[in-house]
Amino acid sequence: MILYPEESTIDFSKMEYIPECKDDFPVVCYGYDLHSRMEPWHWHDEFEADIIESGTAVLKLEGEEYHLKAGDGYLINSETLHSLSSLDNSHCKIKSMIFRKDVIGGKPGSLFWTKYVSPVTERRDFYGWGLKKDLTWQKEILDSLKKIFSLFESEEDDFEIKTRELLSKILSVTVKNLPPENPENKKATQNNISKIKVMLLYIWQNYSKAITLSDIANAGAASKNDCMLCFAETVGTSPIQYLKNYRLEKAAEYLTFSEKKVSEIAELCGFQDKSYFSKSFFQKFGQKPLDYRKAQRNN
Questions:
Q1: What confidence score (pLDDT) does residue 265 get?
Q2: Taking the complete model, does pTM exceed 0.85, yes or no?
């Protein structure tokens, strides 16, 4: 069965929490529209593979950016920081699959793990791919994804084993087409990603409070200059701008899924000035908070 949740399952106290990814069959498929469900920066231990059904999506992977249209897709490596948004906040329908490493590899150290999982997950300079159907090997991955989504819709008797077979094929194609390793950037990349994950966690856990650039930098044991550089290279914005955007995205969630007053939402999201909150919200979403709530409810 393909799940259609209204809200993301991201748990910002650590990383994405995926309760539907069960131990007995650690594969889950979702369908959603980026117009009503945002996927801000996060990471998770599982692999992710998605297809764009309609609209245009912007995928960001630790400094890399892909613009993807209907029929395209993407594969995201384990532990990779990523975000997904629709172009101009328009409708963009996604079919998404999350799968754990052990569904293909079994136990760490097994032949399957060593041959098909480790070559991907141990490449910290490889974040994933945007997938285009005009490249033969990428089309092969996309076709396998479509078959998996069909299997989850039909749930025929042996859909689990057919899904595992197709996932094995996807990882096999991925391993064969991995780009050459770049050892010069590997250590620097790992250090930056480790720092920014800690700093992002700090923001996620404290966004309702007054936060300064020094607070964010100190959380990552970095100087203010290193903090700004790390955010610019990885997330593509400044720490303070990221904090503001995150607060506004949380406000949008409150407006959509709660009955709280605008003034209460502003305070919960770290805005002490309601007028500044309303102005900032309009600049980001093109609507006043109450108009945004009404539009989301009508959709």
A1: 97
A2: no
C-alpha dihedral over 226, 231, 234, 236, to 10 degrees? -140
Beta pairing class for 82-86 and 56-61: antiparallel
Residue 47 sits at the vertex; the CA angle it makes with 45 and 49, to the nearest 5 degrees, is 150
Q: Which residues of 240-277 are buried (b: 16+ CB within 10 A; e: fewer)?
A: eebbbbbbbbbbbbbbbeeeeebeebbebbbbeeeeeb
Task: Report how far residue 238's alpha carbon sits from residue 246's, in angstroms, rounded to the nearest whole number.
Answer: 12
Q: What whole-number distance in Å separates Cα of residue 135 and Cα of residue 16?
A: 31
- Rg (Cα) of the chain, in Å, rounded? 20
* pLDDT per position as a tens digit, 60-102: 988 789 999 999 999 999 999 999 988 877 889 999 999 999 9
